[in-house]
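Hi all, long-time lurker, first post. I run a small reading group and we've been trying to get comfortable going from sequence to structure in the token notation. Rather than ask abstract questions, I figured I'd post a concrete chain and ask someone more experienced to write out its structure so we can walk through it together at our next meeting. Sequence below, copied exactly:
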Amino acid sequence: MSDAESKIEEWKMVRSTIVEFDNILLQLRTVDVTASIVMLGAGFEYSRWLLVLVSLLNFVFWLLEWHYHLYLNSLADHAISLESEIGFNLTHILKSTRDSYKNKSNIKKIRGYLVSNGYHFVYLIFIIVGLYLFFFISKSDPFLVANHLNNTTNT
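-- Answer (accepted) --
Happy to help. Here is the structure in token form:
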């Protein structure tokens, strides 16, 4: 196998690993949103402590997101270096499109940042909502069904 063929095979492996990391991130986000919504609903019904678990879960998933993004960015950089050696430009074009937000005006730069990094805000929103609901909903709140049922059965 020639050097060019081995570089192409390595590039194929790197690209398939990038796709795998993208799938991991997609699954992570799907599980996070689903579990957070279920736990928020259960927190109203059964225990306020589930609301704290929503915040903890999202913090852990956020850390996992960063962890996998470090690998993904490293793989993308490696793919770009391989592509420059073998004459491909796919990863470079994708990265330059994403990085083009940095060269725009302030409004477009902010909009581009929000679009390309919106998943961070999903984690932050669930962390804030979980903590807010835990600390600012009274234990005697009539909207907490479990507390309401306990109060009516004790009387």
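A couple of things your group might point at:
The chain is about 85% helix and 0% strand.
Residues 91 and 97 are 10 Å apart (CA to CA).
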